[in-house]
Amino acid sequence: MKRVFLLEGNLLERQSILRKIDKLMGDCEHISFDKGFRIDYVVQVITEFNCFDENRLFIVRELPSTKGKIKDRTKVIAELKKSLKSVPSGNVVVFNNIGVTAKSFLDEVGKYGKIYLYDSDLEVTKARKKIIKYFESQNKTISYDNAGNIAEFLASSSKKVSIDCLDLFLIKLDNFLGAKNNVSKEDIYIVGSTSKDFIIWNLYTILDNKDFCNAFKILSDYLFLMKDIHRGLESILNQLIWKYDLLLLVKQCQYDKVVAKDEIAKIVKLERSGKSQKIRMFADSVNAKTPRYSSKMINSVITGYYSNKASISCYTLDNLILINYTLMKSLIKIRAGCTTAETKMILQFILMVICGKITKKKTLAVLETKEIHNRLKQCQI
Amino acid sequence: MKFNINIKDLADALKPSLNLAVKTSDKEFEFADKITITAKQDNISVCAYSKLASIVSNLSNKIFPLDYECIEEGEVTVYVDDLVGTLTTMPQEKGEIKSKKGQVIVSLLSDEDYSREMSVFEKSVKVPKIATKFIKEINVNREVFVKGMNSVSFSIAYEEKLWYYMCVLFEAFDDKVRFSAGTGGQWAVKSIEGSRVVQTKEPCKIIFPNKNKNFLSNIMKTLADCTDEIICIKYAEADKKKNIPEQIIITFEKDAYTLCIFGVEEYTKSHDLDTILQYSYPNKIYSELESWGYAIGGVGVSRHRYTDSIHNTEVKLLSNKEKFIVTSQTKNKQKSPVPLADAKKCTIKGKEIWFKCNTEFLENMIRCGAKTGKIRMNFESQEILANEPDDSKKKLKPVLVEYADTPNASSGFNEKFCLFFGISTK
Q1: Quick one: which of B134, B294, B154 has its CA closest to B210?
Q2: N or C: which end of chain A has fewer CB within 10 A?
Q3: Which residues on neighbouring strands pair with residue B356, listed in sequence order?
Q4: What angle separates helix A39-46 from helix A73-83, to the nearest 10 degrees?
């Protein structure tokens, strides 16, 4: 049996290899190392024979540390590399997702052992196929659109889906379903409602459908789990502002008969520095060259995605101006400081405006008054 | 509650509770540093519990010179260090201890101006149920037990992630007890033989957990101070129906103290030491412990400079078989000779005789066993691995260091100590 193994990639495949190694080792002593262990200790132990003829399985879960305060990753890797040829019979060392894939290290591991490199991300389309296949293997069904929704929200702003996140979500969803053999949109909402990415991604669709009750429920559930409700809502508002800014831009482009996609793609993401009153936004760093809205996002609001209708068709220009004004004013109010009760009322108010449950006149009356608290109370459904 | 008592003798009698409740306790634990005193007509009962162990003391005039007189029965819970501190800083006369309006007041009968108050806690110290049925029961000589446990304590693992090595294995045979502790890489074994060392119906093993670094050493301090010749060690399995946890019980000072050690259930596996102690090693080489002092001292010099690298030492027998050459495996080689002793008694097989090991093990060899005298090193030469293929399954036995027996003429006991440690391939 090989004495050194290196496993990188997604959890399930790594676990399956670990189980096989463990089975091959038989009854053995398990010793696990993380960054709390010193490199000299780790090297000493893995290169020592066991006193009692027992096999020993060493699992290195994180790179061990050096004595000094400064982490000397290069030194740690070099020490580990040097020690591999001295791992004696009966000892097996497994580097389990330590994040070292440097060629020189892999070459050294390859000399004395075996390397298992697995993917940790999947493209959205492949993720969707995996979701459908997973439920097929469980004798359950999920629609193409629902599978796509899961893949999209797990990918969030990136283009790829973390396999670990996907696997865990599928296990969670499957456990939630129990004996039920069809995955509905509601099931996905319930299981995913503690994830911020999921909330935001689905909230857009719910708000486009003007479904005030569902929007309020899903956000209330999420904020209830937050330690700091103000920060939670502030973060959600920033995401909504990002989305409704885009819608306003697209709508304006349509009015001006300009190709929205080309114009909006020119807007770059701004870098932020400083804090309090010294916040500066600038566009001259490397990060700022990335566009604020991806072409995929722009497309999705103009043409819709999967079975969802195009967001832009759900609002008039007037609506969007009012929504954006409400979002900005509410954000200022929250940042200026308000009680938890007020925060909840502001949330309710914003959702009412977006879903068209309150007239423009009343909205402006609430936003312009100084006694916002009393006004908000009058507006409640 | 109100009673009169000799101040000094009460302070002495509370020391086992102090040792347990204060020195071995997790400070976050609700009963940390506290004792509950229950004054009854004939005796005082004191309970302390540190999560790892509990101690129940029954203090009466029959065993201790307390001159105890109960005036009013009752119960109070106080900080034990406050109470013992108060008692030891008062004139050593007869005093009065009473509880009044949420306070315990300690005063002298001869001078009422000596009046010390301390706060009382509402919640009493509750100790887990003490077992009444035992599956192992050993009577062991107290001094032998304390000595044996202390001899191997340096070898107990202290790294919490290797918790399964944080213990001492106590084995009782006919007329012999054996103590062993190891960190995985190194083990220390102490055996004491004699006709009155131990009484047990059948050979048995008990594992003493040492989850807190000073836990066992504090218990041994308490046992070292007591006056019994024999102490009784009992082991009881858990009884879930009666809510009794698995426990080791030690009763001492004429049964006045009952010490219960908990958390025993996690330690189920013990190693078979005889596979090493009785192994027929090809090389059995004698040397004087004193001559190792210079060699290991020299090797140790090179330790402090490169603290992030492993520190191994090579021990090689010269071809004329007259001495070992001890060389540190560091950048600056520290080389020293160690002459053999009793060359005729030595058994040497093969031409190239050497091994490499962690320097710390050799340092323990000269520091933690006897300070002088002969030692016998038993080992397999690492040379046998030289021609083995890379995927060889050949394993090497640890290096076994046996110290000379130390017979005690007055007690009639014979003590044996040995160390063994794994060899290193780097």
Answers
A1: B154
A2: C
A3: B314
A4: 10
Indicate whether this model's pTM tops 0.80.
no
Mean pLDDT (chain B) is 90
pLDDT digits (tens, 9 = 90+) for B180-212: 999 988 999 999 999 889 999 899 999 999 988
Q: Is B263 left (phi over 0), alpha (psi -120 to 50) or beta?
A: left
Distance CA B111, CA B117 (A): 15
DSSP B53-68: EEEEEEEETTTS----
| Residue from A4, A30, A40, A44 whose CB has the most chain B CBs within 10 Å, to mutate | A44
From A129, A156, A193, A157, select the one nearest A293 (Cα to Cα).
Answer: A157
Positions of chain A with pLDDT under 50: 381
Q: What is the ipTM of this complex?
A: 0.81
Query: Which token pair is B125?
Result: 């110290």
- Residue B243, burial from CB neighbour count under 10 angstroms (0-12, 13-18, 19+): exposed
Span B249-292, pLDDT tens digits: 999 988 899 999 999 998 888 889 999 999 999 999 999 999 99
Distance in angstroms (rounded) separating the CA atoms of residues A152 and A313: 21
- SS3 for B148? helix
Which of chain B's residues have a Cβ under 8 Å away from the Cβ of A61? Answer: none
Chain A contact for B308 (CB, 8 A cutoff):
yes
Interface test with B, best of A49, A58, A84, A92 (most B CBs within 10 A): A49
Paired tokens of B392: 């060889």
Residues of A in contact with B276 (CB under 8 A): 51-52
Task: Let me know: does A226 contact A244? Beta carbons within 8 Å.
Answer: no
